[in-house]
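Ticket reopened. Same input as before:
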Amino acid sequence: MMSIFSMPADVFLGQLLLGLINGSFYAILSLGLAVIFGLLQIINFTHGAQYMMGAFVAWMLLHYFGIGYWPALILSPIIVGSLGVLLERTMFRKLYNLDHIYGFLLTYGVALVVESAFRAQYGVSGQPYRPPNALSGIIDLDFMVLPIYRLWVVAASIVVCAATWIVIEKTKLGAYLRAATEKPVLLRAFGVNVPRMIMITYGFGVGLAALAGVLAAPIYQVSAIMGGNIMPVIFAVVVIGGMGSIGGAILTGFGLGILEAFAKLLYPPAASTVIFIAMIIILTVRPAGLFGRTR
Amino acid sequence: MREPIPEQRSPMMEIRGLEGWYGESHVLHGMNLSIGEGEVVTLLGRNGVGKTTTLRAIMGILDRAEGSIVFRGRELLGLPPERIARSGIGYCPEERGIFSDLTVEENLLLLPVVGQGGMSVEQIHTLFPNLKERRSSYGTKLSGGEQQMLAIGRILRTGAKLLLLDEPTEGLAPVIVQQIGVAIRLLKQKGFTILLVEQNFHFASSVADRHYVVEGGQVVDEVDNADIAVRSQQLQAYLGV
Amino acid sequence: MAMAPLETKIAAANGSVRQRQLIIILLVAVALSAAPFLIYPMFLINVLCFALFACAFNLVMGYSGLLSFGHAAFFGSAAYISGYCAKTMGLPAELAILVATSCSVVLGLIFGWVAIRKQGIYFGMITLAMAQVVYFIAVQAPFTGGEDGLQGVPRKALVSAMAPMSDRQSYFFVLAFFLIGFCIIYRIVHSPFGHILRSIKENETRAASLGYDVDRIKLIAFTLSATLSGMAGAVKAIGFQLATLTDVEFFMSGEVVLMVLVGGLATMTGPVLGAAIIIAMQYYLSEFGIWVKALHGMIFIVCVMAFRRGIVGEIGAYLSRRRGASD
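Engineering reply: fixed in the latest deploy. New output:
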């Protein structure tokens, strides 16, 4: 048996895959957070709750309407994203002229309401959600066993992140987004309806969170606390990547997922803290994060 | 006070009793002016008299404004900026407003089309050849002159018929000022209407039909470019040259 | 600074204000002494501990304009340390509190040193991340009692000659620490240092151009706040005989933000009132369980959308409007 970094290859690859899976969720979630932050300058604390809602909507669709995984993959982000748009229209919009701290606090309050309501209704234990038949099963690679669903999650996440990156960095639509991030008032004076862009962008970011929730449902089970648990990690990812940097959020998401997986292998107690420790170290060395620009 | 009404029957833009505020400070105190179709009109005046503020009020990006701004028979005051721009007005701000995260090409193509008959990218490249050479550079990498050309060039594509240019010559080398002067005269020939904010009196007189002198947030005088030689001394006094 | 003589002059010229203040202080003293005979003392202990925590937090959020989302780390870790010292090591309560508070000074310096140069939201996220590290340590460390926490912390103090204190005695014990903390905060806010702090909050660039070492002043304020938050947690572990993961978890950091926001940012009495309201809600609405948290969230939303000055802040604004109108 060959070995990599003085650990057996199967252990190494297994851990790498585990890291990539967690990293997939970190990447999609922090990508959504970064997109929202770029345009709204608000840290969307509700993101974890919206991720949880994404999973729950998929579960409800199946449970109450018999609608399966594939339609849920589209429907759930649309439903949760629309709720996000509603939130933006009725509340955020009134806070744009104030200190951004208030937007942050508002999203925290909303997260508290949503998560508590789901906890009251469904408790903290997870609801099982089976992967679709096409994706259940395993691939046996002699030295390790690969669940197909997990491979799908990694692949889907890479595709979603890459597509979002291309749209933002390489298309006309993305040019509007970048321009609105930089000089929103001027862009309006050129005839672009920036308030509507902000609304759609928020809906899109929230939709990404919900998509991550649907992808996560068969792996982590559907529970009211799944969002609150992941939120601090996502914050750390966005800060390490450099606030508002799209590519930074994606790369850091995958990178930290892998870092966390290997920490778990080498020194299990450090697994839950290694990301935060990495954040403290990186910010001390590079205050704007890995891919951020100093302002 | 009443302004002499220009010869055209119904001016393209008519501003009456415009009051404007930046936060708490009251900057515009009853601006009155009108611009006829195809005219090049300047707002002359010293720093801080309200010239830039007037343009911002027209575009709807001032904190607070009162009075009346009628453009082609339509009241603009109170409309959101995007609606104002879409009624056919192109804005070139004082700080040029180049998006640094976008390439020259992206900057040029970014603005939505707001009317018919906009110039093609080729025509803009002919007007400002530098923009063609540097099309894949990012906004911040440009020289001041190139930024100015880009700021003017991008509003020509949109089909806007009224252009608001805020001090396009500020801080630029004489050669480039000349180039911009040529461009503005060409645009006038093509039928664009231009409201130009200037402190550079010589430049203004080389391109404009009429001048409004602004002081303390009001128009205090109006000079036809034909009378400029006669009124030159008085204008110099206004501008404190 | 030239401030002091001016203040004395005004005070001398305005003897009636002094007199009125004296009456208010007397009334408050009577109310505080009578309270445990009228209201359940354990509830009061809870209120006092969180009131001190909120006042300490206000020093950072209200007076310095730094939104920390990690203050539970100071409150919770100090609760553990004080509980451990009193329970496992058998130290008297006062000493346990002293040890725990000292640890908070160090922790506050570490947090502050890493986070202080960050602005606004960055500051909040970094303090949050560091607090998560403290939380996970509390989950895993052997001396914290894991999910159960430290229960049955003895209430043996030097003032009670190491005999266990009753609930009522404990109330006065906790009240003493609350008053010490409150007076320290009052002194800080009304000192020249407090004035500098507010001028930094208003306009950091201008304060820096006046020659103040802005980062150092913010670090001092942050550390003071961490220290007093730690003291609140340490006292709570004794008074409530309990230190658990709840004290150190992220939700606690949010709760103290809510207390300050409800009561009024940058007011002396606002956080006390805010803490009393939130704790009372938890107490008297406890049968609704998790819905209380949802209610907290709704109050958060209402405060942010419509009520940004908080209760005390709104009353103050109303009074000054009326005074302005009658002039």
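The CA atoms of residues 78 and 139 of chain C lie 15 Å apart. Chain C has a mean pLDDT of 89. Please confirm and we'll close it.
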